Amino acid sequence: NAGVTQTPKFQVLKTGQSMTLQCAQDMNHEYMSWYRQDPGMGLRLIHYSVGAGITDQGEVPNGYNVSRSTTEDFPLRLLSAAPSQTSVYFCASSWDRTQEQYFGPGTRLTVT
Amino acid sequence: AQKVTQAQTEISVVEKEDVTLDCVYETRDTTYYLFWYKQPPSGELVFLIRRNSFDEQNEISGRYSWNFQKSTSSFNFTITASQVVDSAVYFCALSGNNAGNMLTFGGGTRLMVKP
To answer: Under an 8 A CB cutoff, do A103 and B45 touch?
Structure first.
């Protein structure tokens, strides 16, 4: 099992550009989530999904879109990148909200 | 809304010292789940423990132990005889049982263990 995979590992964007961060899991988990990690603030939930076709907003959803067309994939789209979106992004999956989450290796994004 | 507070942003100890990382949480759910994760310098997040709100038994795993006290809404983590390899950022997290109460993380505690 590859677990949770994320691509790319590093990305530099200019303000206003758009891009998609990819996330895939091979554990057949229903729940998938996206978090951003900023210094001193822990991880904050951006969007999550409780199954294919179902998504919802987390604590900091502005500027991001998600979709969940399959159980395996949960891409995160930055619509128009801003310097405030410079962060490390983690994707995670789990059986449900009561179980441990399995995290991907993270994507370090810099917006200039 | 739920909240997790890790008041200690950074702790420095000398190897072999014992160290306790504090975690205080707030939730209105009667059923909830608490977690600890470790983030070593390499950056990945490693699951350490999960505890549900009905199980207040303390847990020990090798040099690690956890003290869950519902009366004070705390879930503290103790490392006995710390080692340099324990140097990492440690996160406490909370998940409620109601829709929308996905995992909420504390701000993390950076532990530095010096030789």
So the answer is: yes
